[in-house]
Amino acid sequence: MLRAGRRAEAAEALGDFIAEFGTDDRLALAYFLRGTAYEDLGALDLAVSDYQAYLRLRPGRIDSLIEERIGDVLRRAGLPSEAIPHYRSAEASPRLGGTLGLDIKIGRAFLEIGDEASAIEVFDQVYQQTTDPATKSTMNLLAGQALESLGDTQAAYDRYLDSVQNFPEAYDSYTGLITLVDAGIPVDEFQRGLIDFYAGAYQPAVNALDRVLATTPSGAAYYFRGLARRALEDAAGARADFIRAAQDFPDDPYRQDAWLQQARTEWAYLGLYTEAVQTYLAFVEALPDSPAASDALFAAAQTSERSGDLAVAAEIWLRLPFEYPASSLAFQGAYEAGIARFRIQDYPRARQAFELAHQIAGEPGDVASSLLWVGKSYAAVGETGAAKVAWLEASNADPTGYYSVRASDLMEGRAMFDAGGVPNFEVDLDAERREAETWLRATFPIAGPEPLTDLDGRLASDPRMVRGQEFLRLGLFDDAGAEFASLQLEYQDDAESTYRLMHQFLQLRLYRQAILASRQILQLAGLDDAATLSAPVYFNRVRFGPYFRELVLPEASKAGFDGLFLLSVIRQESLFDGYATSSAAARGLMQVVPSTAAEIADQLGWPPDYTADDLYRPLVSIRFGVQYLTAQRELFEGDLFAVLAAYNGGPGNTLVWEELAPDDPDLFLEVIRLAEPHRYIRTIYEAFAIYRRLYVQP
What we know:
mainly alpha, Serine Threonine Protein Phosphatase 5, Tetratricopeptide repeat, 39 helices
């Protein structure tokens, strides 16, 4: 009921449980959950009472978090003086990370009770302890406001001026700036324009920089005015400012940035592709030794590609391996030249570019990718034998990498995402685990007690393990994850402890943490990705487990997807973390965003009383993800590369990429110019190949 937002009903049901089952092991959990319900309902005194009841029943575990919650509730209730002791108790109790956040809350509570002097003392302590500019700026703002309340306006203005001069990118510096301007306090006009710009106040930024340029012009002032003008959709004015900054101020530190922004403005905002290419190339000619020269050359080629002039793009890209052979872009330049020529069906010259890329390739993945396309170039002109020779070499270059896997499929004539049989998940894990432990003992020193699948005393009693398990019990999954991540990090060089943690995570169904622990053990053994295939299979069973298969396989079968394909997608989306949340607010195993999920819930008429929190339920997330994949499969006529691109990068982008490479999935992948969907497709293909290797009999 809590998850569905029915807080009053939840509080009542939990109250009945507390009254009837006063000795139940879940009593503390009931108090905590009812406290959260009361807090959301605004019954703040009841929330405090329940949190205190939880503390009495479960002391010494997560006291710091509960004390902080009580402090927060008391402040909401208008009782800041009562909140401060609880914040102090939270600081005194063990917790992950520092206590600066609590200090800030204490300072704010002092402000709320009118004790400005104590508040200032706290804010000054935080200012001294932190290295984060945004936090320093916030402390200056809060301390300044307290000083204004005390009537010491000059001291307050000094705090705001410190932020203006030293932390221009922090938003609270903008708030302080407004106070200074309103009070008529002189402020450096350039800093004023800079702060306005970073705060998104673009017109005031332009106005301030106009005043700077009228008296003391500089490249920096033109540069930032150009950025502000562009944000105001005055692209022509921005271009003019970037030109002035680049041409009139050769010694200004912003000169090179301005030159490159001029080119970006030309192609991205004004549609002047030819002029942008010329600007990039002029930069390279004028500043050939600049660290940005190779990037400018690459950008010139990309801009030619965007304009549709692939032949010119290829010629520019080919300058990179010859003019900047030590650059990290040298290989990429030769490779992209080959792709451009392949797209215009100049297959012999495409092969020459790919062969050049192969010659200078340093990483196994680069060797594999260049050879795959050497093979594709041969195949395009009917030289099948030569193509298979190149693909065979490519398949051996980076055995677990996308381009090697794809080359192997091309060589064998295997369809994309073809499992080649029915997977068998009924394996003897106990026997494989014993084999893995024999290898573990032979590879690392093992000092702890048997069995190795249990935590030893040190790990079991570690406060982070105790807190993490308690957070899990309370449904605070992000807090639990942070505790376990800290624990894993401390023991990352200890194979035995990592192995024990891996099994604890498996027991707790924390598959993401278990997967990472398994890979860490193999890394400690010195095994790169390809070498992991020769490691005891048990570690790869953990890394590529068929987690949630009782839900995944039926949903995949109903929708006509291969079960291994769907497992590979989920692994990439969340590493089987059912409570994963992305920066874009995507949730759950298949990382569906709430807006899309709401549409799917309407389409399916399921689940009843749907809320966005339902996405944390594995079945809901899987079913919704499959529904969205199915819609993309219909839109893109079964092309699974396009389906994946749409799932990750959106169907609109995918339609554009399909137009550029309508009949070749390998070329489709290469024309994707967004790094994330390009990597996304490759990683899922790699995972599918390993699932196939582990669970499908040859």
